[in-house]
Design a protein that fits this description.
EmrE-like, 14 helices, EamA_dom
């Protein structure tokens, strides 16, 4: 029950991400950078408190993959935060949750796995759901909305890349892997920002700083530690089902708190994506996207 409560808490927190991201007056790249920096500090403190040493020898064995996956994670955050600016949180989140479908479709290429009839059906129905969310020919199609969906799908592809790379990382797991990936994000995003928009943390203001600290400490550092520490005590199917609290909370936040709209066609599309992705996951594996 403790493990279930941990994952329920972390997924609920992930679902409220957009509220805080939208109240931080920085570029999405800076938000991603400082999110990773603050979360890294939180995880280091967690490791010290729990007296768990960082497995440097094991990390060294998987360092190239950890670095690349960490870089993908950082840019995945940037694209997701950009999606929030162009479309509703509901649509951005549902587009982002196409990541497991990308992983499933790429399994024959990366893992030499044959797609089963069940997986093919899940892929087709999830893709139909995505088309319904894009709402081609619908009443709410706009250039901004389509750009937001594009960013959401870009984030999904990058997160799928993280999932795929994680399957090849065999020596480092859980919180340790996440810490190294956060540090890799910092290493990659810092020169990227210095070469593009620059770093302007001094202009953030008190409210923005509070939101950034909440994002880094609670939504990333604490939530990630709780999420990964709970997985070892849960069955794969239990974790898969509970992971869908994240998009459901995000949709509720979008509609009830942020006052954003979503039409019936898009709701049905979201049901198809989440429903058939979950159906595919009910086999002991956790592929769900985390914000």
């Amino acid at each position: 029950m403790e493990a279930k409560l941990k994952i329920i808490f972390s997924m609920t927190v992930f679902g409220t991400l957009a509220i805080f991201v939208n109240n931080i007056p920085l570029s999405t790249g800076e938000i991603a950078l400082f999110r990773a920096f603050i979360a890294s500090l939180v995880i280091v403190i967690y490791k010290i408190i729990t007296k768990n040493k960082i497995p440097l020898r094991e990390i060294k064995k998987d360092l190239p993959l950890l670095f690349v996956s960490g870089a993908a994670m950082g840019f995945n955050w940037i694209l997701l935060f950009q999606a929030y600016h162009y479309t509703t949180v509901s649509i951005a989140t549902l587009s982002y949750y196409f990541a497991p479908v990308v992983v499933m479709a790429s399994s024959p290429l990366f893992f030499k796995e044959k797609l089963t009839v069940k997986q093919i059906i899940c892929f087709i129905m999830s893709t139909i759901g995505l088309i319904m969310i894009i709402n081609i020919g619908g009443v709410e199609k706009s250039s901004g909305n389509l750009v937001g969906i594009g960013y959401g799908l870009g984030a999904a592809i990058l997160y799928a890349t993280v999932i795929i790379l994680n399957k090849f990382i065999v020596n480092v797991t859980g919180v340790d892997r996440t810490l190294v990936q956060f540090i890799a994000s910092i290493i990659v995003l810092t020169p990227y920002l210095l070469a593009t928009s620059g770093i302007h943390i001094e202009s953030i203001g008190t409210l923005g700083m509070i939101n950034l600290l909440v994002l880094g400490i609670i939504h990333t550092g604490i939530a990630y530690c709780m999420y990964f520490s709970s997985l070892k005590d849960l069955k794969g199917q239990e974790a898969a089902i509970l992971s869908y609290i994240d998009p459901l909370v995000a949709i509720l936040v979008s509609v009830s708190i942020l006052g954003e709209s979503i039409n019936p066609v898009q709701i049905l599309g979201g049901i198809l994506i989440l429903g058939f992705t979950l159906l595919n996951e009910l086999k002991g594996k956790v592929l769900g996207a985390k914000s």
